[in-house]
Amino acid sequence: MIRKNPSGHLPVIAESAYVDKTAIVCGKVLIQDNVFVGPYAVIRADEVDDNGEMEAIVIGANSNIQDGVVIHSKSGAAVIIGEYSSIAHRSIVHGPCVVGDRVFIGFNSVLFNCRIGDGSVVRHNSVVDGRDLPDNFYVPPTEHIGPHTDLDRYPPVSASASEFSEDVARTNIDLVSGYKALQNEF
């Protein structure tokens, strides 16, 4: 469902993107080329700041927002998802938040008030809250990274984790064209 927010903003969705009919995309949202938005995802830009303004939620080209993902923002803050990035099933990305290019966010992970550097991998059931991560950073499964977490104890992204991330992004780009071809059949 594509709909306006109370401020009157309507999503802008690239013709080449695919948004599942069960997904909800509301408000000041920009979805760029070849993006896949899966079933039951919610991307909602509707809160305003103290001046009545809001920044957009932007989903970069060739990225994928998988089943059940929730993307929202506090008090009109921006949420930016870079290009070729994957936000896996049932994750929550709550702004203010920036996810770089070629990033993988694993199942059930939560991001809030943070920046995730290009090429990073946040594995399943992890939380990044109030802490920016550099490029090519690796967060193992079930970790909680907060404002005072010592980042030096984490290894860089391995080649296999990077390859997995790239494979997920490629697979979802292929799904865009496949589902778009089926759009008129159901």
From TrEMBL:
- UniProt xrefs under Pfam families: Hexapep (PF00132)
Extract the InterPro entries matched here.
CA_gamma_LbH (IPR047223), Gamma-CA (IPR052265), Hexapep (IPR001451), Trimer_LpxA-like_sf (IPR011004)
What does the similarity note say?
Answer: Belongs to the gamma-class carbonic anhydrase family.
**SUPFAM superfamilies to which the protein is assigned, alphabetical:** Trimeric LpxA-like enzymes
Q: Which PANTHER family match?
A: CARBON DIOXIDE CONCENTRATING MECHANISM PROTEIN CCMM, CARBOXYSOME ASSEMBLY PROTEIN CCMM
Name this polypeptide is given = Trimeric LpxA-like superfamily protein
